[in-house]
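Session log. Operator J.P. requested a structure for one protein chain; no other inputs attached. Running the standard single-chain path with C-alpha cell output.
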Amino acid sequence: MPEYSATHFSPPAPTARASLIHPDTGRTLDDVPMLLDTGADIPLVPAEALRNLGVETLPDLYALEGLARIHIPLP
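Structure written below.
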C-alpha cells in the first residue's frame, strides 16, 4: 500500500519516493516525493527537483488544469 501525503495534497493522495537521473550527466537526486496518479496522461516532476539536477526546462509553455477547471500556469 502506498504512503498517503496530507502535507502537499488535499485530500491526501498516494505518493512514492523516487530517484531521478539526469539523462545527459547521470547526476542523481534521491528521495523525491512524487504523486502516484495512475490516471495521468503524463508524469509531473517537481520543478525544484529538475532545477537541482540541472535539467533545462521550457519556461511558461505548460499549465495545469484540473477537474475544477482551475488554470495554473507553471513557473
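Operator note: Residues 18 and 70 are 28 Å apart (CA to CA).
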